[in-house]
Amino acid sequence: MLLKKLIVSRREKIIRDVLFNEKGLNLIVDSTPIRVMNSESGNNVGKTTFIRAIDFCLGSTGKDLYKDKETGNDNIEVKDFLFNEDVIFELDLLSNDNSIIKLRRSFNSENDLFIDNVKYSDLKKYCFKLNELFFGIPAAQTKISFRTIIKKFVRSDQHSESSLLKVLSTFKSDNDYEAMYLYLFGFPDQEIISKRLNILTEIKKLNASLKKMSGKSILPKLESRLIQIDQSISLQESIIKTFNLPKTYDDLLDKLKFVKSDSTELSSEIANINLKLSLSNKSKNELTESKSNIDPKIIKNLYQEAKVLIPEIQKTFEEVLEFHNKMVYNKLNYIEKHILKLEKEKRQKEQILKPILDEQSRILTLLDNTGSFDDLIKVREELNELYTNRGKIVGQIDEIKKIQKSIEDNTDELEKVNEIFKTYLDALNENIQEIFNKHFKNYTFQTHGEQIYILYNPESRKFEFDNIKGNVGDGYKKTDIIALDFAFIDYFETMGLNFPRFVVHDKMEIIHKNQILKVFEIADKLNGQFIISVLKERLSFLGNEYIQNHTILELSENDKFFRF
To answer: pTM above 0.85?
Structure first.
């Protein structure tokens, strides 16, 4: 899959018609002289906006076209333009069979979410279709979303721009990265990847539930307490047998025994429900407390200081808070429904228990009226309390064992899946070492004289780098990232994988001109596209003819991307 053309129109009038070079270098340049800019990376003419427009067509929400990530503030002029001027973005793709695929996006819902003139009802379904077109995988067969994997090809934000492998948000786990890169390296059994990811996610969730369930009363302590209670129950029942009861009371005692059994069983069930209610209410309270209403203005200065110390922070505090509160709201909604269900079940069982307890009380009253059973009743009250406590503990033990059993079952299933996974491992590692690393080491050696390579560690289930320096400058790391992306394009071609043959980058200015020259030389030989935005003046050492031959879009202070 290659990028063919991007058209942006306003009220049916084309304002940008950008044709991509089908192979090699594609430059988006800002020709504004550096001396008149506020910075050496650009003058807000729309280089990055162009990249985000591509990303919008590939399923992003498009908010980054008008919202500042650092402050969270909207650019009112741009937002008004996008929402009120009937702006349409059309991206033409060139598929592997040379057919054209047309994508259309807009902030006007009538012109949004079209693929080959077929409208999709929501962004999720639109991305499902893109996942099938780009990677040949129907939505039902993989847990790797299109928006997850496309970040590797369109590095449209600071986080993905500055990360070798971890191009996704900080919310993604190592399991997600493992699944994504196994996929990109052409692991042949996609079902195995999805199964592993599902099982690992379930085990993590069960362990969290077990930790919350156990608290201070871990299973051995509960089982020890149950033994002590059973011993006390046995003692009390033996005492009851010592009473010399008249024959006339045998029937009442037998009936009491059956009634007591029923009441004990129901009490145990109610105790188990109470335990679940307690845990659910605890979770509800924790979530409620976490739904912070902190005024972002109060910590604005602190956040800005953090941005200085940790420049790779991508999300604004308001965006993170909004996302967090939305997730919390959904979880709260689910827990509250679960609590209502448990309370209803508890009421039903209590309604069943009440007449049984009344009957139990009636029988005990009949026995008490004889005047001969004061001591017996006292013993039975103690026994009743013991049975109630026993029911609570049994409920806790059963729930803990149920979770442990589920963890064991999932772990056993994971081992089976891993056995199948291992049968593919030798071929996978051979492909990585013999094919991918051949290109990767070559490119890193050409750009800065080092041979970096990647490997898969099956023990940690991580993709790792070797022979790579730590704490290097941004420009140095940027060349490594580009070399990695170039190596993937070569790998896809060699392996016959029908994955995208393009990569989109921003901010080339941080790289030394010697590395820029090497990167561009490699890009020109790629059987794929390297799309990069850069200041034209930063490339002056290459000569005007070279720049002109590779430029697909030139912007300036007087000719910004949206032309207003």
So the answer is: no
